[in-house]
Design a protein that fits this description.
TerB-like
Length: 145
């Protein structure tokens, strides 16, 4: 299942992903940012579940299953550059901005901005074709300030 998705994501001419594959790939980015500081705790997992539940209108069980599948995909995915570049080619801009907002929710879930998470956010934002300014605006929108 994941090998086929990874092959489609890293294909030279990546086509838009079907909705379920896009959900899985974008959730895998949330997992990657949560794991960036080497502390992937229950609070971050619950935040990812809530984001998926709200974003995709999933039940708590469905959101948890999506996150679990995304954890597997993330661990098998190529380096961050290739993974996010492939997502950029396959996912519309509006969805990528929404993912940046969701990633900031995960980064800020524990109330601490770790240097590793900040560095990965800057890198992923750039790789997804989102400006630093738009990322900062997304962070302000989700943090309320």
């Amino acid at each position: 299942m994941f090998a086929d998705l990874l092959k489609r994501l890293t294909a030279t001419n990546a086509a838009p992903l079907p909705d379920l594959d896009a959900r899985l790939a974008l959730t895998a980015l949330l997992v990657r940012i949560a794991r960036a500081d080497e502390s992937y705790d229950a609070e971050e997992q619950a935040r990812i579940d809530r984001i998926c539940s709200q974003r995709y209108a999933l039940s708590p069980f469905e959101a948890s299953k999506l996150r679990h599948d995304a954890e597997t995909l993330e661990s098998e995915a190529p380096d961050t550059f290739r993974f996010t570049s492939a997502i950029k080619a396959a996912v519309p801009l509006e969805d990528r901005i929404g993912v940046i907002e969701a990633m900031w929710q995960v980064v800020l879930a524990d109330g601490v901005r770790d240097p590793e998470e900040d560095a990965l956010m800057r890198m992923v934002t750039s790789f997804l074709g989102i400006s630093d300014q738009d990322s900062a605006l997304a962070r302000r929108r989700i943090s309320g300030g």
